[in-house]
Write a structure and sequence with these properties.
Elements (H helix, E strand, L loop, with lengths): L3 H8 L36 E4 L6 H13 L3 E3 L8 E4 L4 H12 L8 E4 H10 L42 H16 L3 H15 L19 H13 L3 H8 L1 H10 L6 H9 L5 H7 L5 H8 L1 H4 L3 E2 H18 L4 E5 H4 L4 E2 L2 E6 L9 H11 L3 E7 L5 H4 L12 E10 L10 E10 L5 H9 L2 H15 L1 E3 L4 E3 L4 E2 L5 H7 L13
Helix pairs in contact: 5-6, 5-8, 9-10, 14-16
Bound molecules: cytidine-5'-triphosphate and manganese (II) ion (2 copies).
Amino acid sequence: MVPLKRRKVLSSGAGSTGTTGSTGNTGNTGNTGSGHEVTFPSKFPQVVLFLLERRMGASRKAFLSRLGRGKGFQVEETFSERVTHVICENNSGDEVRRWLESEVRGQGRTPAHLLDVSWFTESMRAGRPVEILDGHKLQEQQIEEEEVVVVSVPVYACQRRTTLDNHNAVLTDALSLLAEKAELSDEEGRGVAFRRAAAVLKALPEPVTDMKQLRGLPCLGGHSLRVIKDILENGASSEVEATKNSERFKALKVLTGIFGVGVKTAERWIRDGILSLQQLQDSGQTLNRAQQAGLQHYEDLNQPVTKEEADAIAAVVEEALASVLPGARMNLIGGFRRGKLTGHDVDFLITHPEEGREVGLMPKVVSWLETQGFLLYQKTTRNSYLEAKDGPARPASNMDRFERCFSIFKLSEEVKGEGLRPWRAVRVDLVVSPISQFAFALLGWTGSKLFERELRRWAGHEKNMSLSSHALFDNKQSRYLRASSEEEIFAHLGLEYVPPSERNA
Ligand code: CTP
Ligand code: MN
Ligand code: MN
């Protein structure tokens, strides 16, 4: 590898081709330092970026390239010897090295820095190249070929079958905790990276005991690999342990554990010195209706819901439907449909086989439940999705467009001991969908969250389609692709069908 200092000399004065890349022929390493004029104003002459399209996708590469240039970075369209920093997504160091070797055909030198996209995004945020930390570097893997046990894991979680049988729970718990920390710190990208890494480990057929087993696996960035290595070598990750002990993380967990409290609210309270439920209660903060209910039922709602409880609630919802609209159908969705034995809530999807009959159903169901005394809290939002008005399904905005109801159920329970309450509070989500959108709703609400995210990413990046919980739009043909079953949607997407029990990514 060429040290950065030498790069500086080579690249100063050699102008970036800016946008077209027409002169940066792949494999042509002869034109460096030949004194071209600087044609693109760069704020950082020592830094020449190249974004690897492999696994990043063409559209994301184009987007990030524009972003980089807008911030004054030189971004090369094609790889050449001028490049000092190679930015990659979901590639391991040795994969990129192999790719580079084939590009420069053995004669060129590999650039100084092979970096994860996290370095790029942090630099964009900072408006300058940030210091390269260990976590930014792609993992180096010196391998002896004959030792390699090849486990092939497809890149997208929706191409994989992930059952609840997780052989790497210690590792995935650690990575999930770091994902949670990132999500609670407004670092969504980093959160997703940890979730993807955890999902790859969940899909492995055996426990990981040696770093060698991870060779060639996708989505394992330097940071995740470091955490895994730490655990394999020392039994625990120092970063995970530090996070668990961090007052801020603990407070964020407790406060966002209140139904109705998001990260923003929790952060505001923490700034006001509120770190616990007691301090919140003593503070006299104004709470909205959801938060009041959340605080009141805090313990119940943080107690996992069992499958038995889910079934009991299903029976109640069935009874409500039978009473207000006979013929309406109901499906258990979310984690319980994937076969989980416990959940943080119970999710139901309701429809009617005759299009249009579902209109106005939610208020009737809610009112029946309320009259019968089953609801401790509810908030209903209306279906605002209109295909004609809204145009193609937009992946990012598919969250709140159904007629849906967030509620807290009062579930009667067998009294198991003296002095115990005969009921407990359980979070229940109800969604109503017209039959024409039912398959999309079913697929979109079964989860897991990462599986859903990966489905939408697959659709967008690999198929130029937009998938939401309402519809699938083919951007090439400019038309909606209809489906009346999940199987048909997978087929439209060119994916092998994955049953709910194998969507536990
Ligand atoms: N979902 C959604 N919009 C939301 C919340 C959830 O589309 N505002 C979808 C998620 O993508 C997920 C499903 O609804 O696929 C269920 O979400 P949730 O109940 O949060 O997760 P579960 O997978 O059911 O996990 P748990 O067992 O903890 O409830
Ligand atoms: Mn759920
Ligand atoms: Mn839910």
